[in-house]
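Notes from the 1:1 (GR / supervisor)

We went over the backlog. Supervisor wanted to see one worked example end to end before approving the batch request, so GR pasted a single chain during the call. The sequence is below; no edits were made to it. Supervisor asked that the structure be written out right there so they could see what the output format looks like.
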Amino acid sequence: MATTLLDVRGLKTRFYTQDGVVKAVNGISYKLNEGETLGIVGESGCGKSVGVMSLMRLIPEPPGKITEGEAHFMGRDLLKMDKEAIRGVRGKEMAMIFQDPMTSLNPVLTVGRQITEALELHMGMNKHQAVDRAIELLEMVNIPAAADRIGDYPHQFSGGMRQRAMIAMALSCMPQILIADEPTTALDVTIQAQIVELVKRLRDELGMAIIWITHDLGVIAGLAERVVVMYAGFIVEQASVNDLYGSPTHPYTLGLLGSLPRIDMLRDDKLDSIEGMPPDLIALPEGCPFAARCDFVIDRCLKDNPALTPVAPGHKVACWIDVKTGRER
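Structure output shown during the call:
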């Protein structure tokens, strides 16, 4: 049986602004097993990034605040650790690749220095050891002539090379969990495919667990074992990748899958779209947050927000309707 590495329970994160309280993450719960890849998908603003930034304790306080929840990792609750203790976890045991390598790398430090800093801090290496290890890491992520490029600044790297350098930095201390927050968003399609293949290879070689955050269900299909679908700060569906694609059970998941281009589409076939806009996170509706955009909506949806409920082994959904029959559960 798989060993649970990370157990997130009831996580809530709020942002206190002049306009009101933004309910960014609303009681999400999930588990990550050793060596597993978990995909978290949903449209922009659904709470994907805020959820993992909360785990890493990277939410700016104020205006942000983690108001409820637990996140158990290696016998410790990440949300209860003091600042010094969480700094020891970040980068060493849990590492993160951020969305945009253009802004995530420090423009006034060489790429090599940004990698060696973590090695010296967390691994106790001296300067020469750290430089040698940084060159190995750059070679591992397929940076050509790594020994010559280690003294280059980020602006001297292409977008794909910067993202590879970010991956090298994240892997420098051999973390047990790698969080990839839409790491291919700013890259063209061919480079995206190379980055995904690179992460898959490194995952298999190093045996680490991965949380991959994206709005692209196409990327997740060949990468993850399990998928969490988020909407308006809630988890609306959670399943193995095969079950999610083979038997989607939430209307929002159906909409996401319907908007993906398929290889068997005919010239005149049109992609589906999800009409309407996500709800205002300052003024969430009383019932299901997806009700205003849902083709299956009934009166109950407008009054009560359904809890995440098992519908099959390893498959949970938050919906009052059985989308296969169109009838209330």
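Supervisor's comment: The radius of gyration is 21 Å.
Batch request approved.
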